[in-house]
Design brief:
Keywords: Signal
Strand content: under 5%
Distance between the termini: 39 Å
Oligomer: single chain
Helix content: over 70%
Largest sheet: none
Radius of gyration: 25 Å
Protein name: DUF5667 domain-containing protein
């Protein structure tokens, strides 16, 4: 039984490697193309992250101003309602920023896969996803 387990692990490992690299075995890899694909993906990630950070900073600034304005209100009930509204608006803005960022990451990953395929190269197992 132990021998079958070892063989299964070895066969499974080879199958994984073939899945990751076998599609392009023997193909001539265009290194400049791969480097360009990497640049494109990393630059899209940087842009997405910068946009995410800007969106979150803007949401925090709006929340700050709304909370400060809430303290100008004359009753506790109005103040608490305004603070709740500010926090809910912040959460919504933050969630939208998260979704926008994750969408950009998915688009970048998908494009990277297509670019690598065009370069006749399979991404390394540790860089296939971001």
């Amino acid at each position: 039984m132990k021998n079958f387990t070892k063989v299964g692990v070895i066969v499974g490992s080879v199958a994984l490697l073939m899945g990751a690299y076998g599609a392009f075995a023997g193909a001539q890899v265009n290194v400049a193309c791969v480097q360009s694909a990497i640049d494109k993906r990393e630059n899209s990630l940087i842009a997405a992250r910068q946009q995410y950070d800007a969106d979150v900073v803007a949401a925090i600034a709006v929340r700050r101003d709304a909370r400060k304005a809430a303290w100008d209100l004359d009753t506790v009930a109005k103040r608490n309602a305004a603070i709740d509204q500010a926090m809910n608006a912040f959460r919504k803005s933050h969630d939208q920023a998260d979704a926008k960022f994750m969408s950009a990451v998915k688009v970048g990953s998908k494009q990277f896969g297509a670019d690598m395929k065009a370069c006749k190269a399979a991404p390394a197992a540790n860089e296939a996803s971001i």
